[in-house]
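[[Per-residue structure]]
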Amino acid sequence: MSDIRINEPDISVSVRELFGIDTDLRVPAFSERDDHVPEIDPGYHFNPEVTLAILAGFSQDRRVMVQGLHGTGKSTHIEQVAARLNWPCVRINLDGHISRLDLVGKDTIVLRDGKQVTEFQEGIVPWALRRPTALIFDEFDAGRPDVMFVIQRILERDGKFTLLDQNQVITPHPQFRLFATANTVGLGNSNGLYHGTQMVNQAQMDRWNIVATLNYLPAEDEAKIIKARVPSLDNPQGEKLIRSMIAVAELTRNSFAAHDISTLMSPRTLISWAENCAIFHDTSVAFRLSFLNKCDEAERTLIAEYYQRCFDEELTESWAHQAPKLALAE
């Protein structure tokens, strides 16, 4: 890790100019980037309400959680706001292997002057607390209970963090910020879609100052994102193809909401389908490889009907039938 960055935000930026949101708000930002600032994605589309919630986290030191279905770009949304503010950002995925020691720190054996000595190596939480850094807990509702209680200590706005092993109390840096993303709102895997998520202690959920919901984008905005990611589709023929692809995606989402199918097409999958179209030069093969093969076999006939309805053509039965026709891009 690099040395502690001691400077404060030194400029104020216009939300209207930076994010295209109709407001006179201005937010603090850094004039210089460092190694922990995410790269800017110029084609990223910002949801106005979620963006304002995240900006409140940065400017007013609010604890912000972004909740929503998979593939909506929750973590990326926070990172792209940070990227435009030049705010250092560290993202941690709270999978089942992340332990309390990973977050807090642990004793390690190091070599000093040719001798082995025990030395405390601080974890990511105390490291981030000392710096002007945005810490993102990804998949917050998948964390283990012992890990979650470590996080609870830093959810208080001005809460100090105690390193018991070191008899040390850490006062958070004035520009330390805390964010989280979750597929649920701490109520567990109620619909069977997100295995591994946990019931989150409601006393902990209550400590999040702002909970924003990021839903799937309108069709027009999804089309803009696809064209930005796959420029070869930014033409009249590509527009027609994208409209049909989005129509298929919306049918799967509506069908999922009605409990007719168990898998929906997220914006991430939609982008993968468009990218695979550019690779395989065949819409139906790209659809099968990007989405259909992920679905329950009992549901594939219904999903194939959605494809036929939107493209006015039968979905090819297998890769083998199409293989002789394919000409992979160089």
